[in-house]
Amino acid sequence: MKALTGGIRRRLAFVILLAALIPASGAIWLARSMVEQAVERFYLPEVGEQLDRALGLHTDLVHETKANLRQQAATIAQSAALANALQDPTGEQLKQVLGSALKEYPALVTVAVNQDERVLASADRGKPIDPNLENELPVEVAVGDKDSAQLHATFAAQRQRFAGRDEMSQFVSAYRALEKRRDIDEGTYLKAFASLLVVTMVLAWLVGGLIASGAVAKLRNLALATQRVGTGDLSIRVPDSGTDEIAELARSFNRMVSEVEVSRARIDYLQRIATWQEMARRLAHEIKNPLTPIQLAIEELHQRYDAGDPQFKKLLDTTVEIVDAEVGTLRRLVNEFSGFARLPSAHLDVCDLWDFLRGEQNQFTLLKGSGTAERAEGVSLPPGVELRFEIPTGHALAALDAQLFHRVLYNLIQNAAQAIEQQRAGKGTVVVRGELAAAGLRIVVDDSGPGIDPSVLRKVFDPYVTTRSGGTGLGLAIVKKIVMEHQGRIEATRGPLGGARLCIELPQTTTFASNP
């Protein structure tokens, strides 16, 4: 059993793992393709070339700007006006030349002429460099042919040109660094995705194991129950809660075992009844034969006596009465045994059970109205016993042998009436009620008598078991045999009226083929 359930658990776990592995493998392959395509779209060689070209343009522009400013400073330093102004010892002419240079070159911020580390003259535009908008570019060149004189010029270039070049340079550097890490990043992404999928698969394995354990436990219960049924234990049932296929299988198993249990009980009972019938037949035969000679002998003795002794005559008369009464009782028993032994099999036809009960109600009503309360079946209703029928409206089809079921109903009503007569001075109530049941149709007979002794409740349907004096114990046995031949069942309990309740359940049907 352990090997069986262990194999099922492993197979279920393997199936769940395989179900997770197949899409996971496809997902990894798809993720790798998507990452490679994304990387190839992002790291295009043309993008790198365009970035290098853009950076080169920015760099050339900056160099050109610096060269232009240096050229402006050289032009000022080599001008004839500046050379002539250097001849003026007062320096006024030099200041004028430097002021004119400020006006001529808008990028010029300050300009000065030094000689031997002494400032000869200087000029500025009147406002300092704005660091947010301008970059400072100092230029120093020699003035004319005099190596001792130097022109110090400070230019203001647009900061945007230099900032754009720096930003572009940083971006290109970062792009090249990323491009170098392309393979590493691609592998990292794939490893991360694969790790996530592995974790998902492990979780799927664990969850699958839990699910498989529940399913295996249910299958183990079914297997154990099947083994017990194989040994003959039909009382076993398995839990059938849930809505899955295994729960449905468990419910089917329980229904099957219940049906087998009922069928076995029916077969066992019918076999026992058949045995009792054979015994009753033999017993009736053995008892019936000597009854007539006994009765004839005692009657002849009574007739031949000449009444010489009055006391003996009285004793003889009493003996004849006793023998006649007991022979009558024995004949009644013989008749009951013979009737039980010759009990026919049921021949079933579809009829309306409620109409059948209405017919029985009418017959008993006529029977009570006649004042005799007696039928050929031997049913007697004491005057103090109220018989009431409660029959639903509508129709309820069942397969019945009407003649045999008459006997069932009369036996039950007679038992109830006799129980009331013995225990309650003949006053009480018997109720016959028809009901719809979950398994089909139900006939309930309740009485207000003393009920059935719990000690004999389980065997009350066995032959020769009776709870009242003078009973043969065959009535309920006959009833149960007939009910079982109708594919029904009967049970005895205590009823709401305080007495016994006999409940018969029959299958409801729409069509039925008569027995041959």
Give start-end ranges of low-pLDDT stretches. 371-378, 512-516
Distance between the amino and carboxyl termini: 48 Å
Q: Tell me the structural class.
A: alpha+beta
Estimate the strand proportion.
15-25%
Overall strand count: 11
Give a quick account of the main beta sheet: strands, pairing sense, barrel closure.
5 strands, mixed
Helix content: 55-70%
What would you say this structure looks like, in words?
- The structure is a single chain.
- With 516 residues, this protein is of the alpha+beta class.
- Helices cover 59% and strands 16% of the residues.
- The protein has a five-stranded mixed sheet with strand order 6-8-9-11-10, covered by helices on one side.
- Helix 10 packs antiparallel against helix 11.
- The longest helix is centred in the middle third of the chain and has 60 residues, at 245-304.
- The model is unreliable at 371-378 and 512-516 (pLDDT under 50).
In short:
The protein has helices at residues 2-42, 45-78, 80-85, 92-104, 159-180, 182-230, 245-304, 310-341, 353-369, 402-423, 475-485, and strands at residues 108-115, 118-124, 134-143, 146-158, 349-352, 385-390, 397-400, 428-437, 440-447, 489-494, 500-506.
List the helices and strands and how they pair.
Elements: H1 2-42, H2 45-78, H3 80-85, H4 92-104, E1 108-115, E2 118-124, E3 134-143, E4 146-158, H5 159-180, H6 182-230, H7 245-304, H8 310-341, E5 349-352, H9 353-369, E6 385-390, E7 397-400, H10 402-423, E8 428-437, E9 440-447, H11 475-485, E10 489-494, E11 500-506
Parallel strand pairs: 6-8
Antiparallel strand pairs: 1-2, 1-4, 3-4, 5-7, 8-9, 9-11, 10-11
Helix pairs in contact: 1-6, 2-5, 6-7, 7-8, 10-11
